Amino acid sequence: MVLIVLGLVGFLISVFILRKSEFQNVAKISSLVSKFSLLLFLLGVIFSCFVQVDTGKIGVKTLFGKVEDDYLESGLHFINPLLVIKELDTRTYNYTMSNVHDEGDKLGDDAIRVLTSDGLEVTLDLTVLFRIIPSEGPRLLRETGADFVNKIVRPLTRTKIRDNAVYYEAVSLFSGKRDEFQNKIFKSIEKDFTSRGLILEQLLIRNITLPSRVKTAIEDKISAEQDADKMQFILKKEKQEAERKRIEALGIAEYQKIIASGLTEKQLIYEQIKAQKELAQSQNAKIVIMGKATTPLILDTKN
Question: Which CATH superfamily groups domain 92-210?
Answer without folding.
Answer: Band 7 domain (3.30.479.30)
